[in-house]
Design goal:
single chain, 227 residues, mainly alpha, Tetracycline Repressor, domain 2, 9 helices
């Protein structure tokens, strides 16, 4: 290998890379800003809500991480299948993976609901914070089912199939047009209980299952990115 070869780039591939990766990068940036906005909403409710959310999210992620990992698996399987030109197998793989995601989500959500009490028992917190945490974990045990389906379908199957723009658009439409406005109205205007506001913050994990399921089963997202 010559030194000049280390600094030479195929501009055609670079353009492909930028075109496909830009929606993912922008979506990640906006997602980070949205997480700060959600924390601000919880901060308005009070310190107990922030503490309860911190515990609830940490505990739920221990269960949901298996579902989130499915997105990486689905991305590899889908991308490899399309890259090999085996488009006839894409439909079968997508249906099978959707079934796996849904079953895994139901199992993980159920486990989280069953074990939330004993797990919270390890924390030394006030009774008010404990009650809030239990409420938050109950909500997360339901939304985990949606998370384990919608995210792997959206970012794994559809995104892995080459349509990265769809995931970026859907995520941000739900986040900025529904999740944050509804939660802000709940906390700042209507002064609903913290659990109700938390429902608005996490409801998109279930709502996104609807468009993701429809788009995924239309199979128009397959993009041949190889040259």
């Amino acid at each position: 290998m010559k030194l000049r070869e280390l600094f030479s780039f195929d501009t055609a591939y670079l353009k492909d890379y930028i075109r496909v990766s830009t929606p993912v990068i922008l979506s990640g940036l906006l997602w980070g800003i949205a997480q700060a906005a959600q924390t601000a909403v919880l901060g308005h409710i009070g310190a107990r809500a922030i503490a309860a959310n911190s515990i609830a999210v940490t505990v739920s992620q221990v269960f949901a991480v298996f579902g989130m990992a499915c997105a990486n698996v689905a991305s590899v399987v889908t991308g490899k299948t399309i890259g090999e030109g085996r488009l006839d197998m894409v439909r079968s793989y997508a249906k099978t993976m959707q079934g796996i995601f849904l079953a895994l989500g139901l199992a993980l959500g159920g486990l989280l609901f069953i074990f939330k009490g004993p797990i919270i028992g390890f924390y030394r917190i006030s009774e008010e914070t404990r009650s809030l945490t239990m409420g938050f974990l109950t909500i997360l045990s339901v939304t985990t089912v949606g998370s384990c389906y919608e995210y792997p379908v959206e970012s794994g199957i559809i995104g892995g199939g080459g349509d990265t723009r769809y995931a970026a658009v859907v995520d941000n439409l739900f986040m900025w047009l529904f999740t944050i406005p509804s939660a802000a109205l709940s906390a700042f205007v209507f002064h609903f209980p913290p659990v109700v506001t938390y429902c608005f913050l996490k409801a998109d994990q279930l709502l996104k299952c609807i468009p993701n399921s429809i788009v995924c089963n239309r199979y128009r997202w397959a993009r041949i990115l190889t040259r």
